Amino acid sequence: MSIRTSQWSNAVVKRFPTLAAVLAGWLGIPFASAEAAPLDSNQQTFFETKIRPVLAEQCYECHNAQKHKGGLALDSRVGWEQGGDSGPVIIRGKAEESRLTKALRHTDPELKMPRNAPKLDERVIADFVAWVNMDAPDPREQPVAKFSEKQRT
After folding, report:
1. CA dihedral of 46, 59, 70, 93, whole degrees rounded to 10
2. Helix locations, the chain, DSSP H
């Protein structure tokens, strides 16, 4: 699929999520829904201690419900499930295929995240890889109400 087709399909999903879900089901294509399976306590703890703090400190400033650079919001599960202008950011269970992993590892000069900061510590990247490989459990239902400096700390 070309980037142009991917951008078009992302726009359709964002504007018409019900239609996109129906078409995906009819075509037999997996579709991320707003409903997620309940997290067990280990998944909840992993997300809250290893993933959410990094997202809040490193990502929310540019990728939130109000300001979503590249069409990507990372302040809710629905935001990353919808992906950005370049397509899906996370492929559940497949960290090596996920754009998030590539961005965090800085393997592609055009896709380095955080954009204007040093590469994250390898342990932090390993936590994100583990999280994606465990199907990216995320308890966040709604985007952060409003980004503030307090949420970064």
Report:
1. -10
2. 3-15, 17-27, 41-46, 52-54, 77-82, 99-105, 122-133, 149-152
Q: Crossing angle for the helix pair 17-27 and 3-15, nearest 10 degrees?
A: 120
Q: What is the DSSP letter of 69?
A: G
Tokens 């459990």 belong to 137
Provide the token pair at 114.
Answer: 């955080």
Residue for token digits 């280990």?
42
Distance CA 153, CA 135 (A): 26
Residues 6+ apart with CB under 8 A from 147: 60, 61, 64, 66, 67, 75
As a whole-number percent, the residues of the chain with pLDDT over 70 amount to 68
Q: Which of 83, 78, 75, 68 is nearest to 8 (CA)?
A: 83
Residue 75, token pair as written in the block: 């302040």
Residue 92 carries which DSSP code? Answer: T
Model pTM score = 0.70
